[in-house]
Amino acid sequence: MNKIKITFVVIITTVLFLNNSFADSNYFKDGEKLFNEKKYLKSKFQFEKDIVFNPKSEFSYLYLAKIFKQQDKDNLQEQNLNTVLLLNPKNEEAIFLLALLKIKKSDFGEAEKLTKTFKKICKTICGKEAELENKLKNSQLN
């Protein structure tokens, strides 16, 4: 009798774990698909669900930051970018977007620090380095 109970518990636990793992990965993929279709509100909900199951999902936070950028919600964008950088201090896209946001907010000292960091760690989106430097220079002249 006890073996049956233990087997039942193991089966239920396995099924619940597999369902959560499956749902976990689908929320991000669904959110990414909706984001690419410019369905930002629906994608936001998917990324938030992904974070519930995977609180260290740096890319869900990154996509939330991009959504808030589209909505001109600078404080929420910054909050999510900072979370990405807490999870992965070398996330190039987060550093790039945060530097742009700091330029927009006229926080040139922080933008310069982020630009230097971007130059040091850049491996995949290095072509955006010139864009960042130009925006920083042009903003400081105005």
Written description of the protein model:
The chain is mostly helical. It folds into two domains: 1-88, Alpha Horseshoe (Serine Threonine Protein Phosphatase 5, Tetratricopeptide repeat); 90-142. It is 82% helix and 0% strand. The mean pLDDT is 88.
In short:
This protein has 142 residues and is mainly alpha-helical. It has helices at residues 2-36, 40-53, 58-70, 74-87, 92-104, 108-121, 129-141.
List keywords for this structure.
7 helices; mainly alpha; 142 residues; elongated; Serine Threonine Protein Phosphatase 5, Tetratricopeptide repeat
Distance between termini? 79 Å
- Average residue pLDDT: 88
Rg over CA atoms, rounded to whole Å, is 20 Å
Question: Which stretches are poorly predicted, pLDDT < 50 over at least 5 residues?
Answer: none
Task: Tell me the overall shape.
Answer: elongated
CATH second-level architecture of the largest domain = Alpha Horseshoe
What is the total tally of β strands? 0
Q: Main sheet?
A: none
Q: Could you name the CATH topology of the largest domain?
A: Serine Threonine Protein Phosphatase 5, Tetratricopeptide repeat
Structural class: mainly alpha
How many helices in DSSP terms?
7
CATH class of the largest domain, please?
Mainly Alpha
Strand content: under 5%
H and E string: HHHHHHH
List the helices and strands and how they pair.
Blueprint: H1 2-36, H2 40-53, H3 58-70, H4 74-87, H5 92-104, H6 108-121, H7 129-141
